[in-house]
Design brief:
By secondary structure, the protein is an alpha+beta fold. It has one domain: Bira Bifunctional Protein, Domain 2 (BirA Bifunctional Protein, domain 2), CATH 3.30.930. About 25% of the residues lie in helices and about 30% in strands. The chain has 5 helices and 10 strands. The strands form 2 sheets. Strands 1-2-6-10-9-8-7 form a 7-stranded mixed sheet, with helices on both faces. The protein is globular and about 45 Å long. The chain starts with 6 loop residues before the first strand and ends in an 11-residue tail after the last helix.
Amino acid sequence: MSPPPPRVRRPGRVDYAATLARMQDFTATRGPATPDELWLLEHPPVYTLGRNARPEHVLDPGATPVVHCDRGGQVTWHGPGQVVIYALLDLGRLGLGVRGLVERLEGAVIDLLAEHGITGRGRRDAPGVYVDGAKIAALGLRIRRGCSYHGLAFNVNCELAPFARINPCGHAGLPVTRLADLAPGTDPQRAGEALLGHLLRRLGLPAPAERSGS
């Protein structure tokens, strides 16, 4: 039997801590018949640290909030101009393991880059997508009771300077790039919708019947 269509939410620019609490609540209360959800959004500027993140990777956050969270991985930055997709999925129902989900998230970004003639690659030692060694998309997940939350962050036309204040994903000196420097003229809304379409195809999920806001 095919999985039911997911619900896609587009809440706009939303606070990170409030969104984290919402993801946790959704995952804690969902049941076997609960449709999967994909959340397409942006965050105001924030640094986030994963469960096992080392605080020394935050070099100089300045006035930007630093939030500890329960995803995997080290430290990253979120902010305007960066597309975030949170994948709230029942992995058992989709027949996926964690590695399979990571590959599909990375693959969606790689597919979108290919539309612009750009070659993106994943790395087993540092999940995410890279263009000529520079990171353009970061991944972080949490699995609870066989269901995922958190997801991916894709740099479209966001600032890059905040990444110099951290060791991105725990890697000192890791270069970071954005789509605007590789394919000028692409805005976050168009890129987000295109990325969402690629992810639905990679997951084998049907497109939702209607749009949803918050």
